[in-house]
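Record type: monomer structure entry
Structure origin: computed from sequence
Chain ID: A
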Amino acid sequence: MSNEMGGIDYGAALSQFGSPENLAAIFKTFAAKIPEMLDTLKNQEAQALPAYMIHVHGIKGSLYGICAKEAGDVAAELEQYAKEGDLAAIKEKTPGFIALCETLLAGATDWLKANAAPGGTEEKERRPAPDTALLQKIAGAASRFKTSEIEKLVKELNAFHYESGGDLVEWLVKQSENLEYGAIVERLSSITE
């Protein structure tokens, strides 16, 4: 496999995250977060520069985090323009930056599809409903903000197809990816009591 994939240095990213599974988790988060963040960059009016600067800073960190140095450098440049109030430079360079990020997003998504576990989701064992004891453990970990424990437990929960409660599992996956631990505790408290 080539070390470069659409502007992401796969070799460096794999080295940084230690395993294809960890890299897949990072790419999934990137793919979930970046489209919304890019949408915020489309408002390039002077009064929106503080928000623009915050979002481009977050995107910059994500890009460097997945070893997309070229795009990260462009984000750093746009962040500097926002600090300086250079609206003309922002309006000129943002569309190209958004297109570059969309290319990276497509590359990460393609990598995820190409490196999916054999069998895909159709091979998951069927269960009647999510295990209440496991839901209690997730609620407890969320109340203590134990990110790695939550990720492990949600992954365990998501390893099965459920006859009922599958929507809850999908919701938990999304909330854990977005670090919405308060929402997890609140929703699970009514289920696990």
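Annotation 1: The mean pLDDT is 84.
Annotation 2: The radius of gyration is 19 Å.
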